[in-house]
Amino acid sequence: MQRVIQKVDENDRRLRRLLLLAMSLGFLALIGAGVAAWDSVATTARYNTLVDHSYQVRAGISEFQIALEKSETARRGYLLAGQPMFLDTYRSNAAALTPQLDSLVRETADNPVQTAALAKVRRSLVRVQASRDRSMDLVARGRIVEALSAFDRDGSIYTMRALRMRLSAIDAREVDLLRSRAAVQKASASSFLALLGGAGILVIVVAVVSLVTVLRFTRDLGESSAKLATLNESLEDQVSERTTDLSRANDEIQRFAYIVSHDLRSPLVNVMGFTAELETGTKAIAELVDRAEEVAPDIVTDEARFAAREDLPEAIGFIRTSTEKMDRLINAILRLSREGRRVITPEPVDMVAVVDNIRDTLQHRLDELDGAVLVSGTLPGITSDRLAIEQVLGNVIENAVKYRNPARPIRVTVTGHVAGARAIFDIADNGRGIDPRDHARVFDLFRRSGTQDQPGEGIGLAHVRALTYRLGGTIDVASTLGEGATFRINLPVKFTETSGLTT
Q1: What integer pLDDT is reported at residue 246 of this predicted model?
Q2: Is residue 258 assigned to a domain?
Q3: 8 Å CB contact between 351 and 416
Q4: Is 481 helix (H, G, I), strand (E, B) or coil?
Q5: Which of 151, 216, 355, 419 is least buried, going by the fewest C-beta atoms within 10 A?
Q6: Recorded E.C. number(s) (predicted)?
Q7: Is it the case that residue 402 has pLDDT exceeding 60?
């Protein structure tokens, strides 16, 4: 009988170890899947930005080529026909070439190969423009024969051909970048799916192992009970006692499984609850130390006094701060996720009214700080998602008020204009400013810049950038530390399904 009891105890210990191991593996698999999901989302967002940048560069190349060809066609028409409409077309398109090329240079500033190629394009453009201007001036003065003769000799045909080839090469390199970035996105997604599949398989294996272990233990328990039933009747009391021990062990296993399962489902809630209990207990210990100092001060050591009054409250404060921050971060991520799934509903938006509503919301704070939110000129109306626009402008303006310079009253100025099919809004403030090294990182999730003396988790501008991308736009910042900042928001005048980015 002793051997039977020992076998049951050994099975009990083995079951505990196997169940703990299985649950630990399952928990690690879930953590791995979560980390993989976060990394995949971050990688996708980063390469979405790069892909959007490449598309913008290609669009700029296309616009430049169109203007180049239109101006050349208009010049030849003017040489042949001498009609003023060709001259007007030439001037409008020729005037757009240099700004468009400047824009391409800025957008490819991080790519030395493209920058060098665009420098060659600029030199060719200068020669072509000079030749064009001379021939157009000769026609305008009536010297058409001389203009045609100059056209035949100036070699602009070859220069234009070289320009086309260089622009095609620049565009081809952007296409190669798009392909490589798409390949990275695909590889990231494949890795995530593989890891997720592996985690799923591991969870299934853990579940099967747990089930087999429980069934095996149940079978062993049944066999042990049968052996105990065949023992001598004189040992009935011992058998009853051992059976009671086995029932107790089985109950403990069930309670253990329940506790572990419960802890795995809600660890954060448990930590917060136990922190509150520790805080209550710490107060009681501190009161006990205070009473002991009054009655018998010799028995209270400095270590006990320091632990009760400083160490324990400080440690509990750190725990509470960390759990509260984790809770806020989780809620923030969930809000971003829900916002990313929300359906965009375009409608006409009066941007002046939007800024007025935001100013009214902040008016009590502005009155306290002798501050003001101003609209300079008129703001162009757009067709977009009203709620998203309110959140974008609201976050930027609220940040300007929050991160003000205490040495001067806060002033926030909103301006806007239309450039082609795009509406550009500038929100300028005279606050503390942003270090140029942090201009890009302030839009990253959970990243903040400068002195951290204001509440927040670093999700506001990340949310703004995500919403702006969904609306088919971009946002960037220009700032000098101590002199304020200007946030520029570039949006389509009319939102369509093709203009928005999927986030």
Answers
A1: 38
A2: yes
A3: yes
A4: coil
A5: 419
A6: 2.7.13.3
A7: yes
